[in-house]
Amino acid sequence: MQSDHLISFEHVTKTFITWDGETHAVENVSFSVNEGEFVTLLGPSGCGKSTLLSILAGLIKPTNGEVHIRNEKVTGTSKHIGYMLQQDYLLGWRTIKENIFLGLEIQGLETEQNQKKALKLLAEMGLLSYKDHYPSQLSGGMRQRVALVRTLATNPDILLLDEPFSALDYQTKLKLEDLVIDTLRRKKKTAVLVTHDISEAIAMSDRIIILSPNPGRIKTVIEIPDVIRTPLPFASREVPEFQSYFQMVWKELNYS
Amino acid sequence: MKPLEDWLTRGKISEEHGKYLKKERLYSFLVGVSQLVILILFIGFWEIASTYKWIDPLLFSSPSRIWETFITMLLAGELHQHIIATVWETIVGFLLGTILGTVIAIVIWWSKFLSRVLDPYLVVLNGMPKVALGPLFIVAFGGGFMATIAMAIAISIVITTIVVYGSFKEVDPNYIKLVQTFGAKKQQIFSKIVLPVSFPTIISTLKVNVGLAWVGVIVGEFLVSKLGLGYLIIYGFQVFNLTLVFVSLFIIAVCATIMYHLVQYVEKLLLKNRN
Ligand SMILES: Nc1ncnc2c1ncn2[C@@H]1O[C@H](COP(=O)(O)OP(=O)(O)OP(=O)(O)O)[C@@H](O)[C@H]1O
Ligand SMILES: [Mg+2]
């Protein structure tokens, strides 16, 4: 099946089987993401958001259905993909510099040129002077920025963001949202974000896919209009239309 | 009083900080003095009790006689070989115990199947008092160096395996997920995450194993050896020279303390940049 989409989920179902029985995490999920798009998966806890990201990253196999990236079936991890977790998970025994080289090391891409690029990214995040510090010497927001650099250092086209701001305080989170969007737009990256924060979803995305739980299914898809998605997330929240979208998403999430 | 005051408050950055430093330093001084007083009282009381025959000097000797014997033997060159033998066996025993225990832990981390298979054996071996295996070691390795080392290893290897494997298993799966998203293979998961995360645990088993190795070596020497501080204890006991027993105990206490502090120092060096 040829398509122009960068990512496509085709009838993806995942059932976890353990001693205790089965969990139907997601059922028959189909959607696609275009090059350069920012798509958010929004839904209550346990509706299979992280499962979908893990399938896309090739970390777990779907029970049924297929995921394609550039018309190629996902069968394992891929260098196209960068994954950002809920917490920074910086390695405490490595300096910041050594932390951002982690992905390059694992992929055997530790060339001087790539290292320079990574350090340049660190500079863009305003953290170059911390390159020889240890993670424990940095604040939560700084650490998550380092995690972003680590993810971008291997130069993936697609970024998967699994609630990357949820461990941060509100102000830091707002600043980081702007930084992430700005960075991704400049570098023309495609992103899939997972969150249960409604305003974050509206402020950051081009499109929101709302999931309902037990088992996780797509409930609705909401396109965000240009007036909201063009400005950076912080400014988006000031746009008059923002409130009505908030109401709309809220209703979708809370009424069946 | 001024120089003393200055010395007690050295490094102060304010009056309050100076007061704090002074208080803490006086406190440490008091602790040190108390420790010294206890030691002096103990030795003094022992000496007096022995002199006035409150305790049987033939059985419990006295500090002065112990010291005398120690110096005499040391100058006569009768102690070196014993000290060297025991210290050497202990070092080899605790290093091998730690290394082998860690290697086994790595192997069973690698193979989930093997870890399930070996689990009950580890439990039984761990519960087993290893010194009870002494006669087997003598049969297997003959009396001497090898049997003593085997004892020292036996006593530390199983617990090392259990502790280190435990820390491998407890590594936060999110760190593993992190490197997997970069496409890490099992060997990379181990070298980039699992081993460095568990490194402090491995180092901490060193400290425990020094103590265990001393037990293994002394018991081993009780059983088989013609050499070493453990042998000296048994020998002194057999010829009813209890002073010799105390001399050995004294040397063991000093050596074990020195070794413990060395290991602690090495641990500090190795874990310098950790939090
Ligand atoms: N490895 C696993 N084994 C068994 N069940 C699992 C596994 N991973 C996830 N599940 C189950 O699948 C369901 C979906 O989990 P998932 O983590 O994808 O939800 P989520 O939407 O990301 O939730 P949250 O917002 O809390 O992160 C849950 O019921 C969870 O218990
Ligand atoms: Mg999740």
From TrEMBL, chain A:
SMART domains: AAA. The keyword Ribosomal protein does not apply. PROSITE patterns: ABC_TRANSPORTER_1, ABC_TRANSPORTER_2. SUPFAM superfamilies: P-loop containing nucleoside triphosphate hydrolases (SSF52540). Keywords: ATP-binding, Nucleotide-binding, Transport. Residues 7-238 form the ABC transporter domain. One of its GO terms (molecular function) is ATP binding. It comes from the Bacteria. The keyword GTP-binding does not apply. PANTHER family: ABC TRANSPORTER ATP-BINDING PROTEIN, TAURINE IMPORT ATP-BINDING PROTEIN-RELATED. This is NitT/TauT family transport system ATP-binding protein.
Automatic annotation (TrEMBL), chain B:
Residues 83-263 form the ABC transmembrane type-1 domain. It is a multi-pass membrane protein. Keywords: Cell membrane, Membrane, Transmembrane, Transmembrane helix, Transport. This is NitT/TauT family transport system permease protein. The chain crosses the membrane at residues 26-46, 91-111, 136-168, 189-206, 212-235, 242-263. It is found in: Cell membrane. Belongs to the binding-protein-dependent transport system permease family. It comes from the Bacteria.
